[in-house]
Design a protein that fits this description.
alpha/beta; Metallo-beta-lactamase, Chain A; 6-stranded parallel sheet; 24 strands; 34% helix; binds MU-OXO-diiron
Length: 395
């Protein structure tokens, strides 16, 4: 890649990972990703903001070389996770005069994860300023978007926010700026769902803090730079709001079609009542798609057969993800078929303790559903519709 100019003295020097298809060995990346790093050249000092995943460090050094960077005074580390910090040891070897500028929590984590020496750090506090001559960096501590040590850096004169993971997208593109807004909206929503949704209350708080800040660009560490900051800020306001949509998600798996038949019936009963309902067959579903749908949905109903006395392991995996991603879902339900018994309800309930949702009466049936079982699914659909009406999301 190459160093690309955002504005006078500010360059994007990170790497594009076109081929990466999985993050944290967990999150699907249908569009690859980028590890953005930014170079800020002041009249007296030069700073690098974040580094790149170690697998792409050659790109970072190539870009710095192309820009003729012979000395770095500072390397700002907004976040310890290795996709941003992993090349720090090599950066410090190449530019030994550089100080790692970060907060105390991040310093401790960088020492743990990268074994950096104590004396390479310049520790800053919330609101502190760092002069580069004619450019000034300020720092905003922003724990929990994504880890407890995360922070934002702001370039005062050029009104550029560098929020690291926050507001990013896993979207590999050679476009420096977020011009393909429709595609980037979806990539950013998927990213929000998988990475930021568990920290929704923190997201709300930081969105409020950013209201006070003049912004010309938002330059995250994944995906393109927002030259129209309101595009991503308004999307985040919607996703992180308490408002839910008239949507029911039915993640399901079926072994011998009994649970599938229940899902089909519930789906029809919901649609007939004016609800939007989407089944997610967990055998095929990209879990990122399910996570993205969870951003808005008012209701989630998990459908699983009972296997070895509990939920099907694939359904259990989905239940676990729902529990840890903590969507703003207001209603949670469980349906499925069992052979002779089991603890499916207890096990799923345990995983969903983190949800601030009302739990609907489960509908678990023995074997293939009978007429009376299908009637219970109609009652479940009516109970969901009733709650959606009460919340004013179903006319
Ligand atoms: Fe992109 Fe939390 O690392």
């Amino acid at each position: 890649m190459w160093g690309r100019k955002l504005t006078e003295g500010v360059y994007s020097v990170g790497a594009i990972d076109w081929d990466r298809r999985l993050f944290d060995e967990l999150i699907p990346l249908p569009n690859g990703t980028t590890y953005n790093a930014y170079l800020v050249k002041g009249s007296e000092k030069t700073a690098l903001i974040d580094t790149v995943d170690p697998s792409k460090k050659k790109d970072l050094f190539h870009n710095l070389k192309q820009l003729g960077v012979e000395r770095l005074d500072y390397v700002v580390s907004n976040h310890t996770e290795q996709d941003h910090s992993g090349s720090l040891p090599d950066v410090l070897s190449t530019y030994p005069e550089a100080k790692v500028v970060t907060n105390s929590k991040c310093k401790a984590l960088l020492i743990d994860h990268l074994h950096l020496p104590e004396d390479c750090f310049l520790v800053i506090n919330d609101g502190e300023r760092l002069s580069l001559g004619d450019k000034t960096l300020t720092f905003m501590l922003a724990p929990w978007v994504h880890w407890p040590e995360t922070m934002f850096t702001y370039l005062v004169e050029d009104k550029i926010l560098f929020p690291c993971d926050f507001l990013g997208s896993h979207f590999a593109t050679s476009d420096l700026f977020a011009t393909r807004e429709r595609e980037i909206y979806l990539a950013a929503k998927r990213y929000y769902a998988e990475i930021m949704m568990p920290f929704r209350s923190h997201v709300q708080k930081y969105l409020q803090r950013l209201e006070e800040l003049p912004l010309a660009f938002i330059a995250p560490s994944h995906g393109p730079v927002y030259h129209r900051p309101e595009f991503i800020l308004s999307a985040y306001r919607d996703w992180a709001s308490d408002q839910v949509k008239n949507e029911v998600l039915i993640p399901y798996i079926s072994m011998h079609e009994s649970t599938a038949r229940m899902v089909e019936h519930l789906l029809e009963a919901l649609v007939n009542r004016g609800l939007e309902a989407s089944p997610f067959n967990l055998t095929y579903t990209d879990l990122g798609e399910l996570a993205m749908a969870m951003v808005d949905a008012a209701t989630i109903v998990l459908a699983t057969p009972t296997v070895l006395g509990g939920p099907h392991p694939t359904a259990l995996y989905a239940a676990y993800l729902v529990g840890v991603l903590r969507p703003k879902t207001r209603l949670a339900g469980l349906i499925g078929s069992y052979g002779w018994g089991g603890r499916t309800v207890e096990i799923v309930s345990e995983f969903w303790k983190t949800l601030k949702a009302e739990f609907l009466e489960p509908v678990l049936v023995k074997g293939l559903p009978r007429e009376e079982d299908l009637k219970k699914l109609d009652e479940l659909a009516e109970a969901i519709a009733q709650r959606h009406r009460e919340w004013g999301i179903l006319g």
